[in-house]
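Reproducibility note. Readers wishing to regenerate the assembly model reported in the main text can use the exact inputs given here. Chain order matters: entities are listed in the order in which they were concatenated for prediction.
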Amino acid sequence: MIKKILVTGGSGYIGSHTLVDLIEHGFEVISADNNSRSTIGMLEGVEKITGVKVKNYNVDLCNFDETRAIFEENNNIEGIIHFAAYKAVGESVEKPLLYFHNNMGSLVNILRCIEEFKIPNFVFSSSCTVYGNPDAIPVTEDTPRKNAESPYGLTKQMGEQMIEAFAASNATTNSVLLRYFNPAGAHASALIGELPIDRPQNLTPVITQTAIGKIPQLTVFGNDYPTRDGSCIRDLIHVCDLAHAHTLSIRFLLNKKNKTNCEVFNLGSGDGITVLESIRAFEESTGVPLNYTIGERRPGDVVAIYANNDKARTALGWVPQFGLKDIMTSAWKWEQYIQNQPKHLDLRAHRLN
Ligand code: WQD
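Running the prediction on these inputs yields the following structure tokens for the assembly.
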């Protein structure tokens, strides 16, 4: 029997790619997204890729009654993948209460519905940011969480702890926490991808927007760190590999392969790359030179982090398929697509609002 999965944040970057992967692996999907940080045009891209028009519930997940209505209407939801959250580190420093209200309020309502409607499987979008500045790299799932570097990171840590406490009180629901490293790249079709609202914060979209001329010059935030070339080290993971890990996590839970009812997985490539190496990789992969300069360190930046992903490989059967070249060429193809995007999809207009 086809299993129905609710994806919150389905119009978002990782949400839309995960919808594609779930559909391609035989799942029925519905989305809940109020498009406050995304555009419904992304679901049109999902439809073009898969031929499936995904039903989206445009609800505020911080409103319990609106959220609960989804479950009243869909009594056969086998699992939930919860992406919906604000994720801009810098904004979270300026507006911490907005982040606590939105990210924690929505999670509480989802957990309340899981409890009331006895939803058996739950996948939570977490982040390597829960590790803070790790003492040793690569980090494993047993690496202790350290003080969050931002209110955004704190919402991910609190989210994990809330789900752990919920799991301890509710043996009927099985949860997986997925700690993303640095999601990057786009679907090969260039019909879906990362769509930053206003000026991007993350490195890869800054690279592609610099390459296409939207940003005049990229600033490397510091080259005086204790790393091989002085710039920070990160673990870039292709968004399609990340998406497939969500499908594998749902299967893992449906097949009752979990040892506890709250399992944690690192989702990173396992390769650390510096900021300067990322810039070079883009230039070599696309042949497009980048105009960049070295600037001051960005407060709150972690010096170096990358994943030990053995647990996801072993327990989920997850094998990342895409490398750095794929990340950079697909991100560039997507950036060019948006540039020439017909207005009717409203992708650009939304971003400029
Ligand atoms: C990476 C490196 C910057 C922009 C955050 C969150 C994480 C996840 C991804 C949501 C850093 C440098 C960046 C620029 C630069 N959140 N950089 N110039 O901070 O590792 O992770 O975003 O999905 O949870 O913590 O990602 O891409 O912002 O920065 O030099 O213009 O690139 O200093 O060293 P980060 P990032």
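We highlight two features of this model. The first helix runs from residue 13 to 24. The pocket of WQD is lined by residues 87, 89, 127, 129, 182-183, 201-203, 206, 218-221, 232, 234, 275, 298, 301 (CB under 6 Å).
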